[in-house]
Design brief:
Helix content: 25-40%
Low-confidence stretches: 160-197
Strand order of the largest sheet: 5-6-2-1-7
Shape: globular
Structural class: alpha/beta
Radius of gyration: 19 Å
Number of strands: 9
Length: 197
């Protein structure tokens, strides 16, 4: 399996993003929070160099404080922004021990392609799916990703299926987009919860 290569960031990722990455990683390390680089930076290091405007980390649960009321907050020393650049923190959900295993890597490591593809497909945004396509075109080890996916499918089948049956929002709204002097109306599904249509 090809290891992620941060040298692919050079000339593609803005220097201020890389500075934010270093500062945020140092802060997380100092706070003793397990973390690995994910998102656009990990996509770039795994073979599809592309720009990004945020720094994404997969972090351990120790980055958060769980309150008796059920409220969960971020620990005060955990960064969520560096010089105006957002730092997004993602955490493994129950049953995602394979992502917990990724957090055993040295702090600030870059996530390898198989679990990164899992996270991208789980996010299910078009941008994330496009990242997966570009990673495949960039010659990631597709067989390794398939083996990883088969292992994950077995684990998913053992998990509760309640997450699959969450009610989907039924609201939608119209977007009017002027194009070449003609207004086009697009019907867009509203994925925000609790939004009236």
């Amino acid at each position: 399996m090809t290891r992620p290569d941060p040298s692919l960031w050079k000339g593609v990722v803005a220097p201020e993003i890389l500075d934010a990455l270093r500062l945020a990683s140092d802060a997380l390390t100092h706070a003793q929070v397990r973390h690995v680089v994910v998102g656009g930076l990990a996509v770039s290091a795994n073979g599809h160099p592309r720009a990004t405007k945020v720094v994404d980390f997969l972090v351990g649960r120790e980055a958060f404080v769980s309150h008796a009321s059920g409220l969960m907050t971020v620990r005060p020393e955990v960064p969520f922004q560096v010089r105006g650049i957002a730092v997004d923190l993602l955490s493994p959900e129950a049953g995602e021990d394979f992502l917990e295993a990724v957090l055993a890597q040295p702090p600030g490591s870059i996530m390898e392609a198989p679990p990164l593809v899992y996270m991208k497909l789980k996010a299910s945004r078009l941008k994330d799916r496009a990242d997966v396509v570009e990673l495949i075109k960039a010659s990631i080890d597709v067989e390794e990703v398939r083996r990883f996916s088969r292992r994950m499918r077995r684990r998913w089948s053992q998990r509760s299926t309640s997450w699959r049956h969450k009610p989907k929002p039924k609201s939608s709204y119209a977007v009017i987009a002027p194009r070449r002097g003609v207004n086009r109306v697009y019907l867009v599904k509203d994925t925000r919860r609790g939004t009236a249509g």
